[in-house]
Amino acid sequence: MKFVLTSQGGMPDKPLITETVKLFGYKSAGQTVMRKMEPLLEKLVKSGKFQILPNSMVQLS
After folding, report:
1. pLDDT-derived band of residue 28, with 50, 70 and 90 as boundaries?
2. Which of 2, 22, 50, 51 has the highest CB neighbour count under 10 A?
3. What is the pTM of this model?
4. How far is the C-alpha of 17 from the C-alpha of 33, rounded, in Å?
5. H-assigned helices in 1-61
6. Is residue 5 scored above 90 in pLDDT?
7. H or E stretch including 53?
């Protein structure tokens, strides 16, 4: 996710997860993958590495 945000800048959470999953060779992010990646994104936000802006964009802190 950090690589995606570094190269693309801020983006909404779902597209961020989708683009991250594509980097690992998957064609899309299904429900199972989304359920596993969303807590990781939340953890990165809580740790202060990422921030979610008022317009729902995720960006590096």
Report:
1. confident
2. 50
3. 0.86
4. 9
5. 2-8, 13-23, 31-46
6. yes
7. none
